[in-house]
Every structure is written in C-alpha cells, then in structure tokens.
Amino acid sequence: MKMNPCMLISILALLVLRAASECVTHKDCRSAQSLCFDGYCLLATAVPGKCTTSADCRTQLSVMQNAGRGCRNNICYEIITNKLCTGHVSCDDAQVCIRNHCVPSVATSAKCHVGALCAAGQRCLGGICYEPLEPSRVLETDNSPVQSFY
Fold first, then answer.
1. Total Cβ atoms within 10 A of residue 59
2. Is residue 15 part of a domain?
3. Which first-to-last residue range defines the signal peptide (predicted)?
C-alpha cells in the first residue's frame, strides 16, 4: 500500500508535536497533584502511605488500582477516576482508559478510523482522536473545580 506524502508528513508532524509535550517522570508535570503515565500528566489524589518509589504505594488492592498509583515528593498518589477500566470501551464516551483508570479526554486535531492513527493513550470516537485532558489544560481553560470533570 502506497502512502500519500501529505498524509505521511501529517503523521510525522503529529508525532513530533506530541513528543515535545510528553512527560517522562511525575516531576515533569506542572501540577503537584498529578502523575505522569503514558506521556500524559493526569490528575491524582493523595492516598495513605509514604514512599520513596512508586512500588511503595502499591497495596493489596486490585492490580487495576495499583496501576494508577505513583510516588511523588514522598507522597503516594492515585489517578483520580470515577471508574476503573480494562480498555477505552470500558469508559464513558468523554473518557480514555489510562493505567486502568477512566480519565476525562479532549478532542485532538487528528482524524482516525476505528483507532487507526491515534497515538498511545488516545481513543478514536466519531473519526477524531481523543487524548487525556491534562491538568495544565484544565487550569488554563476552566476556572471550575477539578472534581467537576469526574
């Protein structure tokens, strides 16, 4: 299958732009109450326990909950969610599944067809890729409390 050069350039541009804004560690996230998973800064809430590594935050809870836990500044956090998930289809339409936690999402400019061409952590809905709504975007675009997204 021969790919259109314009489409190839668009895909490469999307990947470069996404890579430029990715987080790698929890400390890369601007909000102190967020964790970095899959290149996205996700809102999190403190949970009981002190830590030096993310492994210290795991409990005997389900594996799904532990997947969304991490250590930041010696405090254990878990991604804020209203529902645990096994994939995007487990979440509401306005959400994506990251680390087994449904999180609010926002439309990107990328077009898709049943998940094709959406980046990791994104979901295809109605021909458009959706990605997690990151805390910095929440603070820049909305003055309402963060909990209103969940």
1. 13
2. no
3. 1-21
Coil, strand or helix: which one is 71?
strand
In a domain, 4, yes or no: no
Length of the chain in terms of residues written: 150
SS in 3 state form for 126-143? CCEEEEECCHHHHHHHCC
Q: What domain range includes position 119? A: 21-144
Domain count, the chain: 1
Instruction: Name, of 54-63, 95-104, 108-117, the range with top average pLDDT.
Output: 95-104
pTM of the model: 0.73
Residue 45 belongs to a domain: yes
- Residue 8 lies inside a defined structural domain of this protein: no
Query: What pLDDT is recorded for position 71?
Result: 96
Helix, strand or coil for residue 21? helix
